[in-house]
Amino acid sequence: MTSTRVVVADDDSTFRSALVDVLGVDPGIEVVASLSSGAGLVETLARTHADVALVDVRMPDGGVHAARSVREACEDGRLHEVAVVAISAQAATHTVVSLLREGAVGYLVKGHLGGDLGSLVKRCARGEVVVAGPSGAEALRTLVRDGHVLT
């Protein structure tokens, strides 16, 4: 069985360590790197051949900036397809919409995961869009109403 290779990026060292620990017990996931900011994310993803970037929304060079950088690197061939999964303590609809517009395929709200983190990350790696949080439905309705197509 091939493992899903994950890079974790969060500026809160305690939370980042907890994410690495939780994902590390899943036999189908291999955490290949962890970062304290989005700086160097694209290079780390390329070097590690990661499948998923689990990225904090409110860290330096995180959130929309990170999603855009990864999307652009995939589009211009510097990276193979990488699933960007945003994680945040807040769930404002406009933030979720912004991340999805920039290519994120997942938005997980800390405290509202409602299931196994490893399973959610693997679903995103397989191409599913996963929005686990109280504003997910409204964010998707907004994208549909605006005619935005997720790619």
Automatic annotation (TrEMBL):
CDD domains named in the record: REC_NarL-like (cd17535)
Presence of the UniProt keyword S-adenosyl-L-methionine in the record: no
GO biological process, alphabetically ordered: phosphorelay signal transduction system
InterPro entries hit by this protein: CheY-like_superfamily, EvgA-like, NreC/VraR/RcsB-like_REC, Sig_transdc_resp-reg_receiver
Name of a matching Pfam family: Response_reg
Annotated ranges, domain Response regulatory: 5-125
Residues that bear 4-aspartylphosphate: 56
Keywords: Phosphoprotein
PROSITE patterns linked: RESPONSE_REGULATORY
Database matches in SUPFAM superfamilies: CheY-like
Protein name, UniProt field: Response regulator receiver domain-containing protein
